[in-house]
Automatic annotation (TrEMBL):
GO terms for cellular component: plasma membrane. It is found in: Cell membrane. Signal peptide: none annotated. InterPro entries: ABC3_permease_C, MacB_PCD, Macrolide_Exporter_MacB. It comes from Pseudoalteromonas luteoviolacea. GO terms for molecular function: transmembrane transporter activity. Residues 283-394 form the ABC3 transporter permease C-terminal domain. Residues 54-237 form the MacB-like periplasmic core domain. It is a multi-pass membrane protein. This is FtsX-like permease family protein. Its main location: membrane. Keywords: Cell membrane, Membrane, Transmembrane, Transmembrane helix. Pfam families: FtsX, MacB_PCD. The chain crosses the membrane at residues 15-40, 332-354, 366-387.
Length: 401
């Protein structure tokens, strides 16, 4: 540490260059930490589980082209025929579809005639819907076939039993969420007894704050578009899709609104987050490159200006290692000052983002890891100029002005 005081005196005599270096590090650190946090947060959103057997599910949105009095019978016939297709594990009908933007939300309360406690996504379908989605039952039981009901619209109004997601159960009963089984919840003020809890099932809107809140009722709806959710044994063979469409089109007046694999649904739902994440990662890579070159350039310029001083120190007996250590230590001091200023500005920027865009604040662990990475980056950038300067013979270095 004998070089510490000489370094401070040197920086004081050339404070403008030192301030530029510190400012560069602070700005880089601020942008870098926030960009990494936002990029990883986007990746975390993209990778969160939907709860479905994603690679083995597709859906068909279609109509029931018969009179209202005949729709229930046609729907039952469709479900029987679709479940009989070779390769189909389970076929069901659903009022909505996760992550598609096509669905319904309901108010959920634990007491009657009171203000709701929270919101939730809602899915109505037959007793096979949970199996067709491929979601995991973690408490209670599945729906029974005899519990199935049929409505034209708003099936939740006549449902007597329901299943909920663990996230919804925890929001209502905290850590005692399993106690929700057997309890009565009020879905839009209509009582429904909870018979089971599934681990995860996302709602129709991926950016919704309560996307993992879900209510499932065993009530089929026949009005408008119906969604057949079909789960296959392994992957989604083209033959199964073809057979499904071939059967459905046997009914005169049938229209296929959409056919889509759930992997494609999820990719489309998170396309904006995926694009933002890749953009941020590109910004991070570019910023690291520019910063490294900037530190290298400033360090090299500062060292070249002091070649004569280096020659004098070498002539007085300073070793090559001591010359390298001097400039490495100088870089550490400047980088630490820049990091301290960067941490303050990163916190301010993070809080501003949190207030304006309702994002999370950057954890302190990011500041610590970012500080270490910035210090290492500075050391890597300054090492080569310092090493080259240390190789100059004293006689040559003292002649350079």
């Amino acid at each position: 540490m004998k070089d510490f005081l000489p370094i401070l005196k040197s920086l004081k005599s050339n404070y403008i260059a030192a301030l530029l270096f510190i400012t560069q590090v602070a700005i880089t650190f601020t942008i870098l930490v926030n960009a990494i946090f936002l990029a990883l947060e986007k990746r975390e959103v993209i990778s969160r589980p939907s709860g479905l057997d994603e690679h083995n599910i597709f859906y068909v949105a279609t109509n029931l082209p018969v009179k209202d009095a005949e729709k229930k019978a046609l729907l039952e016939q469709d479900l029987l025929r679709l479940n009989a297709i070779n390769g189909v594990t389970s076929a069901a009908v659903s009022t909505g579809l996760p992550l598609t933007g096509w669905g319904r939300l309901v108010e959920v309360a634990t007491k009657p005639d009171t203000k709701y406690d929270t919101f939730s996504g809602y899915y109505g379908g037959d007793a096979q819907l949970v199996k067709s989605f491929g979601v995991e039952l973690i408490a209670g039981r599945h729906f029974k076939k005899e519990e199935e009901l049929t409505a034209r619209v708003d099936g939740y109004k006549i449902a007597s039993e329901a299943m909920v997601t663990k996230a919804l159960a925890k929001s209502l009963f905290d850590e005692s969420w399993e106690q929700i089984v057997g309890q009565t919840l009020y879905i839009n003020n209509k009582p429904q007894r909870i018979v089971g809890v599934v681990k995860t099932l996302q709602s129709a809107w991926p950016s919704w704050v309560v996307v993992e809140h879900g209510v499932i009722s065993a009530v089929k709806e026949t009005d408008g578009i119906v969604n057949f959710v079909i789960r296959t044994e392994s992957g989604v063979p083209t033959s199964v899709v073809d057979q499904t469409l071939s059967y459905l089109m046997e009914t005169h007046g049938r229209k296929i609104d959409k056919v889509e694999m759930f992997t494609d649904v999820k990719a489309r739902a998170y396309s904006a987050e995926n694009a933002a994440s890749k953009t941020l990662l590109g910004v991070i890579a570019g910023l690291l490159l520019v910063t490294t070159l900037g530190i290298y350039g400033q360090s090299r310029y500062g060292i070249v200006k002091r070649f004569k001083l280096i020659g004098i120190r070498r002539a007085m007996g300073a070793s090559k290692g001591e010359i390298i250590r001097y400039f490495m230590l100088e870089n550490v001091i400047l980088t630490c000052l820049g990091v301290i200023l960067g941490i303050i500005s990163a916190i301010v920027l993070s809080v501003a983002f949190s207030n304006v865009f309702e994002l999370g604040t950057v954890p302190m662990s990011y500041m610590i890891y970012g500080s270490v990475c910035t210090l290492l980056l500075g050391q890597v950038a300054v090492f080569y100029p310092a090493f080259r300067a240390a190789q100059l013979p004293p006689a040559v270095a003292t002649r350079i002005v």
